[in-house]
Design a protein that fits this description.
The chain is of the alpha/beta class. Helix content is 46%, strand content 16%.
């Protein structure tokens, strides 16, 4: 029997965040979800993922998973068969973002992960969804599953990531970019985020871009997300 193509899902959250995608795609693909808690560098995360995947695989990276994808591009680009980047950026942290990460680390060090949880819905959900209990509960569960130590490790890894635009120029595999149409952290009203993405798109004709009608693609419009991944 032919071996099924391998999908590696990478994110900073609870593994169940990808549950609907795994359920929809597992008949045709071998699916593994990676949510990193124990490493404080992208290099260590990349080595773990590369050790647990076949010689060629498709990488689907959401947020931190996208930063990890750039690290894998730097290390073993030849291993990537296809690439999906969702709600991520190739830019290194600017000073304001770095300050925010350091403040979050300090808050969790002082009060534990519970001290940070009440702030998360307003940061990461559109106003229309902030009061949706099923989403805020899921967000809380994701934060608790990562825990204080995992939060420190992830933030430390993201603080040290380099600008990855030059690495993206080396990518020559089919690539899908997906970003929420109203995703404020990635596409700002001044268009800077859009210009960043488009500057990558126009490097060649091998990229597809989707501005989807949601924030986190895998939590608010499952049918759209599943179809998009299956077709990519």
């Amino acid at each position: 029997m032919p071996q099924k193509p391998f999908l590696a899902f990478a994110c900073a959250h609870l593994e169940r965040l990808y549950a609907a995608q795994v359920a929809a795609l597992h008949a045709d693909y071998e699916c593994t979800v990676f949510a990193f808690r124990d490493h404080d560098s992208l290099g260590a995360m990349a080595e773990e993922l590369l050790a647990k995947t076949p010689a060629r695989f498709t990488l689907i990276g959401l947020s931190l998973g996208g930063y990890l994808a750039f690290e894998i591009i730097r290390r073993q680009l030849q291993r990537l068969e296809r690439l999906v980047l969702m709600d991520t950026t190739a830019a290194a942290d600017h000073s304001t973002r770095r300050a925010g990460r350091l403040a979050d680390i300090a808050k969790v060090r002082e009060g534990g992960i519970e001290a940070l949880i009440p702030e998360l819905p307003a940061r990461w959900l559109q106003p229309a969804h902030v009061q949706r209990v099923e989403l805020t509960n899921l967000m809380s569960a994701m934060a608790r599953s990562i825990g204080a130590r995992g939060q420190f490790n992830q933030q430390t890894a993201m603080l040290s990531r380099p600008d990855s635009h030059a690495d993206l120029e080396r990518v020559c595999v089919p690539t899908l970019l997906a970003c929420g149409r109203e995703d404020r952290p990635k596409i700002r009203t001044d268009g800077a985020g859009s210009r960043e993405i488009c500057s990558w798109l126009f490097l060649g004709r091998r990229y597809n871009m989707i501005l989807a009608p949601f924030y986190k693609p895998i939590s608010l419009d499952l049918e759209f997300a599943n179809a998009t991944l299956a077709e990519s």
